[in-house]
Amino acid sequence: METKDVILDLRKKAGLSQDELAGKVYVTRQAVSRWETGETVPNTETLKQLSGLFNVSINTLLGSPRKLICQCCGMPLDDSTISRETDNSFNEEYCKWCYADGNYTYHDMASLIDVCVEHMAGHGFTEEQARTYMKQTLPELGYWKQHKELEDGGKFEEFRRQLVDEFNALGIEGMPRVEKLNALVGSYVNLAYPLPSGAAVKLLDDNATYLGNQLEGADGRCFGVLANADFLLVSTYGKDGADPELLLFRKR
After folding, report:
1. What's this model's pTM, rounded to 2 decimal places?
2. Based on the domain organization, do 44 and 112 belong to the same domain?
């Protein structure tokens, strides 16, 4: 789709008239009309406003001229997986897993390769093929080429280690020791925990990125640990998240 078609489609889906859209992004109705006929294209600042209004990336607004891939892990990007800045604007360079809340979540290439291999193995790759592919691909990506310039002095890794220590200090019976925490997007780990009333509640933001891991328990059930700067969460569940039970939700 061209930009004119994208804007027209998004405006209609949002139920806005040209006048209403113009008012929301501080332009005239005539400007909106010219966008939708293809006579002009919104300037950079207006594209940012439209991106926020319609919750789509600027790349999408422009008709997806670029094939976006995460410059840290190499995964293809779309609007559901593109990372966000602290003001909720899109950062089209990275995925949600590699960049969250203004922080780069991976500072060690070997650790990222381990995580990627775990997800790639069995999906068209053997473990060896996946590891070889990632070792060849990552050094060519922008993040790893600029790694020293983008380094935060180890602050994020220190925060990650602090969370590991806090989990291990909880003393939850049967829970294996936490050795590492990976970036996890809320929608993938947002389990619905049953309440005494029979209702169920979800505690996470589907669009946020957390640090967490899955630990194998001795009885066949798994322990899930999740955290951010505000809380620690520990749960247990069966295969594929079945029968979840919330063990701990604590503010930090």
Report:
1. 0.79
2. no
